[in-house]
């Protein structure tokens, strides 16, 4: 995802050259400070809080930070006091060389809310260097034919200081032939020039020794000296002359050491030694001496050190051609270093917030600066990140950018992002730098626990043991940490208005484990008393504020075969006889009576069947298995006894789960005359009851 100002819909990119479009508030002016070089670390520069018009302590509250270009930090901020201090002792000559004024830009970053203020520190020169000549002795050859008033330039002294602290004047020791004047070089430096006052005579004085002194503008001035040896030569008529007074040349900065730069050429009309020329640099600076060499015979100039456009873009050097008779001529070589895209962009991270709350749209993730010391297109940059990420780049001040969330993030969808910031220059070939940032999305309690089911149905057998585990409910929370820690509870309904339900409240029937969601029966349940009940449970997380959800739990009590069948008719009375009348003329199938029984259980545990177990006259009576009707199986005969007893069984149809049997003995009464008999009842462990009639 690249970013171009303004933001494009497809690519999000920012070009470094359009830095004036500021998307955050930036101070309209630049704060400027000045400090002397070589001051101790911790020296006071200014009070930022006061100068920016901020309240006491506001710098600390807003997370103020001082930023410098690159990784070199020369200032530090005391947030509590608001004082801006030197982080280390600063050497103007190392930081700026001969550039004057020496300006060190910086930025003040206020993080909350984000605001940039441009700053500038001027490093003032102190007179900590004395003038120095590169040679202890300067050789000067002068023809005795030279006329008074002729000028002879001398080599200048070097002084790393600037302004008034650098070389301001030269003096020469007292003598009878020369006086000295101080001249201005075309680059602003001052150089000495001897002026001949009286004609020389080689036979009288073949050489003259003088002392040259350079003075800077300090108080008191610092000085440097060199000896001047003047050799008086025989008459030499013609000065050497260069074909060009100015040579211009362009040299790529990636030229190897030893590369040919240019060849200068001069001629002399004299013959013999007076016409033999030698070439040398005249008044060379230290940079020229370190970087170039000249062949004394051919005038060929070559590199003896690699060029660096980012350090020095232009060189001006004077070349002197001297003949054997002490005369010389000069030319100037103007060399331009051609920039080559040899520097990849640099990225300096000033602020990184690696944990971003998921519900914070347009949150600053990182603030960084980019730079490229190359020039032209080689120094223009494009800053980009990957496409399809919920982040974008915003420019702030010059070559500073912020990485911002495009909208609210969702940790549950993606908890981590790996963002690659790519800075590419526009040179040929293009060079780039990449920096990887990992952003963790921190959780916000924006998800309530969710039950795995909206309702649960639990089946519990009756007559259970207390504390029986009857089931488990479960809820999950998509959040993390304490926001995802779920606790469970029973949700008690408000008390109902009278008349109240006679059944006990569910709180006395069940309990819940708050951590696991396990449900337990507090006491034995009785199907015949309470067949079903329901209640609501809650799941709450530990976030702030806590979020919760509910679910419905239905409990169904399973019937157990714990009740014997109960005979409603004939009446169950052991002290009174039970008599049924049967006419002699009854045909087969005559309904004698009907046994009616019930069972408090349910389902198969309450399914009843009837059968004949025992009779005094087998085959005379039968019982219908499903309805308990007792009927004659055949017509009564004359020989049939007037009184009969039978045993019938009423049993459950639930199989091995348990059954109840009832035995009934019924009297057979002839001629419709009522007869009585005693009735006996017996029970056994399988719930069988016998009745004799």
TrEMBL record:
<dbReference type="InterPro" id="IPR050174">
    <property type="entry name" value="Protocadherin/Cadherin-CA"/>
</dbReference>
<keyword id="KW-0325">Glycoprotein</keyword>
<dbReference type="GO" id="GO:0007156">
    <property type="term" value="P:homophilic cell adhesion via plasma membrane adhesion molecules"/>
</dbReference>
<keyword id="KW-0106">Calcium</keyword>
<dbReference type="InterPro" id="IPR013164">
    <property type="entry name" value="Cadherin_N"/>
</dbReference>
<feature type="domain" description="Cadherin">
    <location>
        <begin position="348"/>
        <end position="451"/>
    </location>
</feature>
<keyword id="KW-0130">Cell adhesion</keyword>
<keyword id="KW-0812">Transmembrane</keyword>
<feature type="domain" description="Cadherin">
    <location>
        <begin position="452"/>
        <end position="567"/>
    </location>
</feature>
<protein>
    <submittedName>
        <fullName>Protocadherin beta-17</fullName>
    </submittedName>
</protein>
<dbReference type="GO" id="GO:0005886">
    <property type="term" value="C:plasma membrane"/>
</dbReference>
<keyword id="KW-0732">Signal</keyword>
<keyword id="KW-0472">Membrane</keyword>
<dbReference type="InterPro" id="IPR002126">
    <property type="entry name" value="Cadherin-like_dom"/>
</dbReference>
<feature type="domain" description="Cadherin">
    <location>
        <begin position="243"/>
        <end position="347"/>
    </location>
</feature>
<keyword id="KW-1003">Cell membrane</keyword>
<dbReference type="InterPro" id="IPR020894">
    <property type="entry name" value="Cadherin_CS"/>
</dbReference>
<dbReference type="InterPro" id="IPR015919">
    <property type="entry name" value="Cadherin-like_sf"/>
</dbReference>
<feature type="domain" description="Cadherin">
    <location>
        <begin position="134"/>
        <end position="242"/>
    </location>
</feature>
<dbReference type="GO" id="GO:0005509">
    <property type="term" value="F:calcium ion binding"/>
</dbReference>
<dbReference type="Pfam" id="PF08266">
    <property type="entry name" value="Cadherin_2"/>
</dbReference>
<keyword id="KW-1133">Transmembrane helix</keyword>
<dbReference type="Pfam" id="PF00028">
    <property type="entry name" value="Cadherin"/>
</dbReference>
<keyword id="KW-0677">Repeat</keyword>
């Amino acid at each position: 995802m690249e970013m171009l100002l303004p933001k494009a819909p497809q690519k999000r990119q920012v070009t470094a050259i359009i830095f004036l479009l500021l998307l955050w508030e930036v101070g309209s002016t630049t704060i400027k400070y000045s400090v002397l070089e070589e001051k101790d670390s911790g020296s006071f520069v200014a009070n930022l809080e006061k100068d920016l018009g901020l309240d006491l302590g506001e710098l600390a509250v807003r997370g103020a930070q001082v930023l410098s270009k690159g990784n070199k930090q020369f200032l530090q901020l005391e947030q509590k006091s608001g004082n801006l201090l030197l982080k280390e002792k600063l050497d103007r000559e190392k930081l700026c060389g001969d550039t004057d004024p020496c300006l060190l830009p910086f930025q003040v970053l206020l993080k909350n809310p984000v605001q940039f203020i441009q700053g500038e520190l001027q490093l003032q020169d102190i007179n900590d260097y004395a003038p120095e000549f590169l040679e202890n002795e300067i050789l000067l050859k002068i023809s005795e034919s030279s006329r008074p008033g002729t000028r002879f330039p001398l080599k200048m002294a070097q002084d790393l200081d600037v302004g008034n602290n650098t070389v301001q004047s030269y003096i020469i020791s007292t003598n009878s032939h020369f006086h000295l004047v101080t001249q201005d070089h075309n680059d602003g430096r001052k150089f000495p020039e001897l002026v001949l006052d009286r004609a020389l005579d080689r036979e009288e004085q073949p050489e003259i020794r003088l002392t040259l002194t350079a003075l800077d503008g300090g108080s008191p001035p610092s000085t440097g000296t060199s000896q001047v040896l003047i050799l008086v030569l025989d008459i030499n008529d013609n000065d050497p002359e260069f074909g060009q007074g100015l040579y211009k040349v362009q040299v790529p900065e990636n030229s190897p050491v030893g590369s040919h730069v240019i060849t200068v050429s001069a001629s002399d009309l004299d013959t013999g030694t007076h016409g033999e020329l030698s070439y040398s640099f005249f008044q060379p600076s230290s940079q020229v001496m370190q970087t170039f060499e000249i062949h004394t015979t051919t005038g060929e100039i070559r590199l003896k050190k690699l060029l660096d456009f980012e350090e020095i873009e232009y060189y001006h050097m004077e070349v002197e051609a001297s003949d054997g008779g002490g005369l010389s001529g000069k030319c100037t070589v103007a060399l331009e270093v051609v920039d080559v895209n040899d520097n990849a962009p640099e990225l300096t991270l000033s602020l990184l917030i690696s944990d971003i709350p998921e519900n914070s749209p347009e949150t600053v993730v990182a603030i960084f600066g980019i730079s490229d010391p190359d020039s032209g297109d080689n120094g223009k940059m494009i800053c980009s990140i990957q496409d399809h990420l919920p982040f974008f780049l915003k420019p702030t001040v010059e070559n500073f950018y912020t990485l911002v969330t495009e909208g609210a993030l969702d940790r549950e969808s993606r908890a981590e992002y790996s963002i690659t910031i790519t800075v590419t220059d526009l040179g040929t070939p293009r060079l780039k730098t990449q920096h990887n940032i990992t952003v963790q999305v921190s959780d916000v309690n924006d998800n309530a626990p969710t039950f795995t089911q909206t309702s649960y149905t639990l089946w519990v057998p009756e007559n259970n043991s207390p504390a029986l585990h009857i089931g488990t409910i479960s809820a999950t929370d998509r959040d993390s940490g304490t926001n995802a820690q779920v606790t469970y509870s029973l949700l008690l309904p408000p008390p109902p208005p009278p008349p109240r339900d006679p059944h006990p409240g569910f709180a006395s029937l069940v309990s819940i484990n708050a951590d696991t969601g396990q449900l337990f029966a507090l006491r034995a349940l009785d199907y015949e008393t309470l067949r079903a009940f329901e209640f609501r449970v809650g799941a709450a997380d530990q976030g702030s504020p806590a979020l919760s959800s509910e679910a419905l739990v239905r409990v169904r009590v399973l019937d157990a075969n714990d009740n014997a069948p109960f005979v409603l008719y004939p009446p169950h009375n052991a002290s009174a006889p039970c008599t049924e009348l049967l006419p002699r003329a009854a045909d087969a199938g005559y309904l004698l009576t009907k046994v009616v029984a019930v069972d408090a259980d349910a389902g198969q545990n309450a399914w009843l069947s009837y059968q004949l177990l025992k009779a005094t006259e087998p085959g005379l009576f039968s019982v219908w298995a499903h309805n308990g009707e007792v009927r004659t199986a055949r017509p009564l005969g004359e020989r049939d006894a007037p009184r009969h007893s039978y045993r019938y069984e009423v049993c459950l149809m639930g199989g091995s789960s348990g059954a109840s049997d009832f035995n009934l003995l019924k009297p057979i009464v002839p001629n419709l005359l009522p007869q009585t008999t005693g009735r006996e009842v017996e029970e056994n462990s399988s719930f069988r009851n016998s009745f004799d009639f």
